[in-house]
Amino acid sequence: MIPLLLCLALPQVSSYSTSPLITQQTVQVQGKLICNGSAYFDAKVILFNNQLGRLQLKKRLSEAVKSSFENTLRPIFANMRLRVPLQLAETKPNNSGDFTVAWTGSNLVAITPIVNIYHRCHYQQTIKPIKICARVLSIQVPNDYVINNANGPNATYDIGTVNLNIKYTFELVDCIFGAYSS
User: Fold this and answer.
1) Contacts of 28 by beta carbon, 8 Å cutoff, 6+ apart
2) Where does the signal sequence lie (predicted)?
3) Any idea what the CATH number is for the domain that residue 90 is in?
4) Residue 2 included in any domain
């Protein structure tokens, strides 16, 4: 009986990669960064998928927690709805402050892209000269700019010119990714 079930299941497994449920998705974002009226190129622009982070986090936790605490920690983490974005692509602005960041890949569900801009325009650090933290500006990419095709981006979301002097109310300070920016 078990060999028969395995034979019936194998075509399903082998056809997974060509399943119509898996779609090829593309997103592209461009913009220009300025600080003090001049082009700002000392930044890092990262494109994240804000949707799948929660699913991936659960998988990583379930694989990582293999100690005696597994039975006590897993229920706690499994019920948390943490949204940890997954990095899709990364770039740095050119000398003119212009950037373009793009990603193409396959997913079972539609991605929810966000662009994080890590910068130190008007950021006073407490520890010098080590660069530890950075200001972070997050911009949600509208779903209309997530293209479902295999030909690459044909619609670019232009965020325009972003003045990094402005302290936005939804801006954060990041000391994890911020440490890796230039």
Assistant:
1) 100, 101, 102, 103, 145, 153, 155, 156, 157
2) 1-15
3) 2.60.40.3330
4) no
CA distances from 110 to 9, 19, 59, 167, 168 (A): 26, 15, 19, 31, 28
Both 73 and 156 in one domain: the answer is no
Per residue of the chain (182 residues), what is the pLDDT tens digit? 555 444 444 444 433 444 556 678 899 999 999 999 999 999 999 999 987 444 444 444 444 444 434 444 444 444 444 455 688 999 999 999 999 999 998 877 788 999 999 999 988 766 666 667 889 999 999 988 988 865 655 689 999 999 999 988 888 888 776 655 55
List, in order, residues 6 or more apart from 35 with CB less than 8 Å away.
119, 121, 122, 163, 164, 165
Q: Is residue 7 in a domain? A: no
Model pTM? 0.68
Which phi and psi (to 5°) does residue 94 adopt?
A: -80, -175
Total domains in the chain come to 2
